[in-house]
């Protein structure tokens, strides 16, 4: 603002009001952001904090956001998977639930379950890209008979709720002899996620000019090379969206995993976590520790790929 | 390479639209051929068929007697400049130009040399490290040209490459493209809807309408001897004027055009061709520039009317001219001074009259 005195008080008034309005606006945005941040972060904070608390401390009122006697015994139990401390039906009477200090019998399955989850999610992500990218490219840039019908068909498969598919899926998986295998999960997750991936990529590829495709092919690219050398580098943001979406979907999936898996050979993290709550005794601190482990991989994936979600990558492709 | 031959080629899009119909065309080696026509007439479709970007639905397309209907674009030795330029946004200017060579496994040093050469010629060497988004429209256009140039293709295709440039740049680029054709000594096929571009650049022009070829010929043929009213109207600025009337043959040898008081005597070849058409309904075409006021070649060349509008265009002026209730436009020298509403008589150049059949629009003299 200039310090030249205004000739009229009205102008001063107007300026002051404008400044006040701007400050008020900032305060509102700031306050809103804080609220949103608290809403998002608080549960996670409590999850992390309570995972290093004892069972007794967790249930104290008011809750301790910062643990007074932090302990890593939950994590130790998960990683060393020692038998001595775990509670089984036979040994549970030897411990005092009120004092805490028990570990569920399935604690040792946690790391294998995590490995299963990671394997499934990674496979689903990779296969999704392998299937969806060429599919979306050909639907977007190769005009053929039946193209629209195909797109509608793909979309329609997405509006069917998963619960309606569980039984048919189960029958197919059983017929294939794939019950209690990782393969059954990969197969069904693909069926659920590929249409959506195709849809995301299709939108994006259609937005890229046809002439770019033509230019690449005249420059000597086959269709496949045009896809790899021109379209993929340009569609990084949507590829990242597909990776995140498919990874998170398979990482969190519960219903199908519940149906198809029975043992450590194929059980995924959500199934195991849910099982903890229905154990003979419930240890909240242990469940939370497991929860902390469960969110680490998605967070890492999100951090790796977040910076690739940049807009404006295609600016300057065509005139303008 | 490379003569290109279309034999009864048709193109039907998957939605059933017939974009090109029964196209027969012989493009000669090293020729500069221009496809000219209004929007949607199938020019780009024709060009894309040469490039292999669109499939040929009917007929045969031959490169030097070899049928290429099913040959994919990357096997054809063609380069193309697009209207939107279609530069690769994620590549630098250098890589944009080099891409076609890289795809064809040209050695690295050779590629660098050719890119540098092309960039020097197009005066864009200082831009090689930039990305397309950091270039002006004119610079992008040059990069697009460079990308096609370095390939040294057998056929050079251009789809309205100048239409996104401003007027001045467009005219200077025309000259450069003509030079490029001389320098490269290859076949050029150039698409435009701009008649001036076509007349300046072309060895031969193909005029199209609704997927059908209207006329093929040198710029002179097309402009001076249009075969139908569509071609006659499409070229010329302001467009050709039409007057409907009839042929009148008197004394067995004087052949004239008659419409009310207007009587114009045909000359030479035209007169001979119409000598047996007494009474035939025709449409007379007079190009805007084919009138003159200063000439006084007798009563049988004068057209009379009232001045409706005067539009100076720098070098000369357009005269809106009311003839029996029809608006005609003529181009006359700017030293002529006319008031609106004034009655004037203009002398028509009788040797340059165009005569068309009234019903079909086909020329009766060419
Ligand atoms: N992929 C397509 N599917 C269906 N119809 C199409 C397709 N591409 C073009 N057409 C139609 O074919 C006709 C010719 O198109 P084309 O692009 O060849 O025109 P053009 O002469 O290049 O016009 P312009 O000067 O506007 O570029 C147009 O009517 C257009 O609507
Ligand atoms: Mg076009």
UniProtKB/TrEMBL annotation, chain A:
Residues 114-305 form the ABC transmembrane type-1 domain. It comes from the Bacteria. It is a multi-pass membrane protein. PROSITE patterns: ABC_TM1. Keywords: Cell membrane, Membrane, Sugar transport, Transmembrane, Transmembrane helix, Transport. The chain crosses the membrane at residues 23-42, 118-139, 151-173, 185-205, 226-248, 282-305. Belongs to the binding-protein-dependent transport system permease family. MalFG subfamily. This is Maltose/maltodextrin transport system permease protein MalG.
Automatic annotation (TrEMBL), chain B:
Residues 4-235 form the ABC transporter domain. GO terms for biological process: carbohydrate transport. GO terms for molecular function: ABC-type transporter activity; ATP binding; ATP hydrolysis activity. Keywords: ATP-binding, Cell membrane, Membrane, Nucleotide-binding, Translocase, Transport. The keyword Cell inner membrane does not apply. The keyword ATP-binding applies. It comes from the Bacteria. GO terms for cellular component: ATP-binding cassette (ABC) transporter complex, substrate-binding subunit-containing. Belongs to the ABC transporter superfamily. This is Carbohydrate ABC transporter ATP-binding protein, CUT1 family.
């Amino acid at each position: 603002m200039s310090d030249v005195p205004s000739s009229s008080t009205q102008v001063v008034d107007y300026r002051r009001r404008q400044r006040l309005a701007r400050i008020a606006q900032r305060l509102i945005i700031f306050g809103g952001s804080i609220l949103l941040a608290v809403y998002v972060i608080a549960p996670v904070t409590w999850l992390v904090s309570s995972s290093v608390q004892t069972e007794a401390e967790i249930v104290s009122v008011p809750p301790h956001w910062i643990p007074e006697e932090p302990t890593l015994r939950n994590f130790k139990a998960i990683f060393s998977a020692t038998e001595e401390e775990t509670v089984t039906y036979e040994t549970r009477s030897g411990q005092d639930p009120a004092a805490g200090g028990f570990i569920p019998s399935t604690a040792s399955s946690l790391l294998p379950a995590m490995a299963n989850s990671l394997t499934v999610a990674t496979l689903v992500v990779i296969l999704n890209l392998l299937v969806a990218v060429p599919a979306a490219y050909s639907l977007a840039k190769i005009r053929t008979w039946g193209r629209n019908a195909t797109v509608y068909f793909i979309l329609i498969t997405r509006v069917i709720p998963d619960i309606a598919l569980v039984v048919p899926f189960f029958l197919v998986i059983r017929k294939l002899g794939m019950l209690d295998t990782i393969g059954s999960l990969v197969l069904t997750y693909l069926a659920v996620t590929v249409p959506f991936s195709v849809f995301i990529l299709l939108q994006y590829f259609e937005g890229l000019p046809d002439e770019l495709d033509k230019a690449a092919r005249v420059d000597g690219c086959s269709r496949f090379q045009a896809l790899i050398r021109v379209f993929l580098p340009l569609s990084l943001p949507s590829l990242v969206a597909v990776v995140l979406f498919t990874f998170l979907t398979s990482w969190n999936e519960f219903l199908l995993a519940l149906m198809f898996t029975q043992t450590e050979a194929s059980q995924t993290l959500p199934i195991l976590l849910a099982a903890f709550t229905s154990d003979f005794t419930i240890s909240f601190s242990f469940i939370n520790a497991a929860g902390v482990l469960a969110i680490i991989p998605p967070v890492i994936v999100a951090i790796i790929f977040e910076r690739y979600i940049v807009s404006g990558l295609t600016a300057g492709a065509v005139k303008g | 390479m490379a003569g290109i031959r279309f034999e009864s080629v048709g193109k039907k899009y998957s939605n059933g639209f017939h974009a090109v119909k029964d196209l027969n065309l012989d493009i000669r080696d090293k020729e500069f051929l221009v496809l000219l026509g209004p929007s949607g007439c199938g020019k780009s479709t024709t060009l894309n068929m040469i490039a292999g970007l669109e499939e040929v639905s009917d007929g045969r397309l031959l490169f030097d007697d070899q049928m290429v209907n099913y040959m994919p674009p990357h096997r054809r030795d063609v380069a193309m400049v697009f209207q939107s330029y279609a530069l690769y946004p994620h590549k630098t200017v250098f890589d944009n130009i080099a891409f076609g060579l890289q795809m064809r496994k040209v050695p690295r040093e050779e590629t660098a040399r050719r890119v540098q050469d092309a960039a020097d010629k197009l005066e864009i060497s200082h831009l090689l490290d930039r990305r397309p988004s950091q270039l002006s429209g004119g610079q992008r256009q040059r990069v697009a040209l460079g990308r096609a140039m370095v390939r040294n293709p057998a056929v050079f295709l251009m789809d309205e490459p100048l239409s996104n440039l401003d007027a001045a740049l467009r005219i200077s680029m025309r000259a450069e493209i003509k030079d490029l054709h001389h320098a490269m000594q290859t076949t050029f096929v150039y698409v435009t809807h701009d008649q001036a571009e076509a007349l300046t650049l072309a060895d031969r022009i193909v005029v199209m309408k609704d997927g059908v070829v209207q006329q093929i010929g040198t710029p002179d043929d097309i402009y001076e001897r249009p075969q139908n009213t569509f071609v006659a109207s499409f070229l010329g600025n302001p467009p050709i004027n039409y007057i409907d009337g009839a042929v009148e043959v008197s004394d067995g040898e004087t052949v004239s055009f008659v419409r009310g008081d207007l009587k114009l005597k045909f000359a030479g070849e035209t007169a001979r061709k119409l000598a047996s058409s007494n009474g035939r309904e025709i449409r007379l075409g007079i190009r805007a520039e084919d009138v003159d006021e200063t000439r006084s070649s007798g009563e049988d060349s004068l057209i009379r009317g009232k001045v409706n509008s005067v539009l100076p265009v720098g070098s000369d002026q357009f005269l809106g001219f009311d003839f029996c209730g029809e608006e005609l436009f003529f181009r006359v020298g700017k030293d002529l001074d006319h008031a609106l509403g004034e009655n004037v008589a203009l002398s028509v150049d009788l040797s340059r009259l165009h005569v068309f059949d009234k019903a079909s629009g086909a020329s009766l003299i060419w």
